[in-house]
Amino acid sequence: MKNGLLFSAIVSAVALTGATGSQVAAQGAFPQREVTIVVPFNPGGASDMTARIIAKGMERELGKPVVVVNKAGGSGGVGMSQVARSPADGYTLSYIPVELVMHKALKLSDLEPATFAFVGQTTVVPAALTVPVDAPYKTVADFVKYAKANPGKVRVGNSGAGSIWHIAASALEQNQGVKFNHIPFEGAAPAVTALMGKHIEAVTVNSGEVKAGVDAGKLKILAVMTPERDPAFPNVPTLKESGVNLEFAGWGGFAAPKGTPKPVMDKLSAALKAAASTDEFKTFITSRGMIVSYRDAANFTKFADDQYVFFNGLLSKMELGK
Amino acid sequence: MESFDGLMSGFAVALTWQNLLYCLIGVTVGQLVGVLPGVGPTTATALLIPLTYGMSPASAIIMLSGIYYGGMYGGTITSVLINTPGEAASVITCIDGYKMAKQGRAGAALGIAALGSFIGGIASVIGLALVGPPLAELALRFGPTEMFSLMVLGLTMVVGLMGTSIVRGLVAMFFGLILSTIGMDPISGALRFTFGQPFLISGIDLVTIAMGLFGLSEIFLGMENLSAVGKPEKLTGLFPKREELRGTSGAIFRGTWLGFFIGLIPGTSSAVPALLSYSIEKALSKTPERFGNGAIEGVAGPETANNSYCGGAMIPLLTLGIPSSPTIAILLGAFIMHGLTPGPILFKQNPDFVWGVIDSMLVGNAMLLAMNLPLAGLWARIALVPPKLLYPIVLILSIIGAYTVSNDLWDVGVMLVFGVIGYVMKKLDIPMAPIVLTYVLGAMMEKAALQSVKMNDGSLMGLVESPISLSILILATIVFLGSVYAEIKNKKAMLAGEPD
Fold first, then answer.
1. Which of A117, B220, B255, B384 is most buried, by the most CB atoms less than 10 A from its CB?
2. Based on the domain organization, do A47 and A145 belong to the same domain?
3. Is A23 among the domain residues?
């Protein structure tokens, strides 16, 4: 266990230092050796598992080992910054979470979409407005009406100050002109637990996180915040269907350091596309309450830039980091 | 009676040879990662999940939960032998366990820990089977407000670990509290004491601090006089003596209850029941002065409590799908990956699976006892290895362990710094355990306090309006006044006896 971890860490360290001196391999010859994917979060989470399955799939395409290394810390900043500083030869990739487009506004790091060359997007992480099953509101409209009548009284749990689900609740708040009392928890799970114990009124976290509570008959989802209905909850309407003009979701993808040669990028993108189309990947992503959503390099780059603008707009109106 | 039938039928699943094998693999891996500092059960479980893809869901969960509770057994070993806790729960064990090893009683310490862990583990699993679901509902009443009061109670218990000088104890407690504020403020997201260093945004890793303060400082201290320290003359009592067993039965009994109930409450840490158990044993003991000098109850109680915590913590997961700790959260991920959603429906739809897993925990605990009792004597011999040979090995293991915390040299550096801090503190006679414990409690307490205030519109009244919270706060006040009174009485007695 430990040896495996350490070994992969040493391998990647050696690979990093070794690569600086050597020239990027000739066209078509990539990859000459193993590729490392840095996951900027701890092992076991949804991001880590996503990267591990993708790594397995890419390994089959590239014909060389694809190693996953976890570098947690700094809301993903430690791992992503390390990849950004790595040689642009395609041998070091990073899992890119939605947090990338939030880092600058939250003053966590200088990372922004322009720091990376995107390989492709793999997943969308849908948010869902969830309340206790016996709550007095049945629809989003009821909920918003209640919130308008009781400004600052509706306590909405999120997964941490400035986290993606905090911003989801703020987006709804700004869109509908209501005022919530945002309660941060360390991760989505404690927020959902507090909701089940009725210590708070609602959460706007990933629908996968509330599935157990919904199945246990303790929670109900008022709406999902994605453009389309969540296949895991086909009977739950979207926000748009409920009359709220808002789309919101987290997402995940992969990127290489800026300046990675085009032929190498093409090869990586092709491998990623194949890995994201396997049944194993699709089954896993669906089971974890996420949605498979592949975007190629060009589309992902444009999407990330748009999201960067969208999130900066939202974050500038929130009181954070003070 | 339904539960009883379920418990019996589950053995059909738990006792197939494949599942016995997976259970054995799980508890062995758990035991090993518990022994190695740095890699905890959380990481081990996460990294082994991909291996379970091809297994049946029952086998997969049996193996993964084996790692979880097996890790609790393993953590004891390094705490007792080399004063290096592998996780927060074992910090308490260092206090008396390491003293016992220095006196040549490592075998007895490890033996009683294995026995206590076994009893705690089995009792909590039976509790899980018989009274799990209604208790889980009760546990949901613990919100941030109640959590805050529980942490206050925990802090008053730390007072009991201060040692001889209140001032030194307070220095240690405040140092721990200050450390716990490093990183991103959980409520506003503001960065505190990070000095622009991204590694500090999520705070300092607990295991890194503990390895430095406890393990490394011990080595630094030992190196002052390499040929003369640390080694007991001979090993006495490879197994706990009969009267020791009788003396610890109360500690084990109380530890079982404590661990089980605290395990039920989502968001706690296994260090909490261990700490409470130690303090209660010390308070109840007729000879409290033995605590800190190798009292066997000081090992038995906490070790029992942290194992029965595991069984308790499975209840919110199995009955409501609530992950109450990081390792349990990873287990929840494994459930979902195998197409199972934990909760009441799981008991109805897959009774074979649920009861199979529950029964496998009984089997696994028995395996761990069978492994650990004979091994206790062998492990104890490590105490006889000359420091010249032992220290470099421990040092290397610690460095590797710290490296694996974040796969970066950063944590190795942090550990070395805390090693030096620990060395200086030992020279100044400042106790270490309060630092680590207030670090754990402080972080949870601050978060809970801020959440509670925010949920009650900026008012502290929520703390006394909740009946659970109010009762805990009253209990905390009693404990605090009691220990202040005892302290003053001691001081007076000392002053009267021998003018200092």
1. B255
2. no
3. no
Q: How many residues does chain A have?
A: 322
pLDDT digits 0-9 by tens, B444-499: 899 899 899 989 888 888 888 899 999 999 999 998 888 778 777 777 776 665 54
Query: With an 8 Å Cβ cutoff, is A11 touching chain B?
Result: no
Q: Which helix (H) or strand (E) holds A181?
A: strand A181-184
Query: A208 and A188, same structural domain?
Result: yes
Give the closest residue to A304 by CA, choosing from A101, A134, A130: A101
Asked whether residue A254 falls in the same domain as residue A279, the answer is yes
Residues A11 and A97 in one domain: yes
Main-chain dihedrals φ then ψ at residue B193, nearest 5 degrees: 55, 35
- CA angle at residue A19 from A17 to A21, to 5 degrees? 90
CB pairs under 8 A between A and B: 178
Cβ–Cβ contacts within 10 Å for residue B465, how many? 12
- Identify the three-state secondary structure at position B267: coil
Write the CB contacts of B411 (distance below 8 Å, at least 6 apart in sequence).
Answer: B205, B208, B402, B403, B405
Alpha-carbon distance B56 to nearest alpha carbon in chain A (angstroms)? 16
Q: Are residues A111 and A181 in the same domain?
A: no
- Chain A residue whose CA is closest to B147: A194
A93 plus A129 within the same structural domain: no
| Secondary structure tally for chain B: helices H, strands E | 21, 2
What is this structure's pTM? 0.84
Identity of residue B330: I
User: Which residue in B373, B380, B145, B157 sits closest to B275, CA to CA?
Assistant: B157
Chain B environment of A184 (Cβ under 8 Å): 186-187, 189, 451
| Per-chain mean pLDDT for chain A | 86
- Report if residue A270 sits inside a domain: yes
Instruction: Output the six-digit token pair for A162.
Output: 């400035």
Q: What is the ipTM of this complex?
A: 0.83
Q: Which domain holds residue A132?
A: 125-224
- Could you tell me which residues come within 8 angstroms of residue A167 by beta carbon, excluding any fewer than 6 positions away? A102, A248, A311, A314, A315, A318
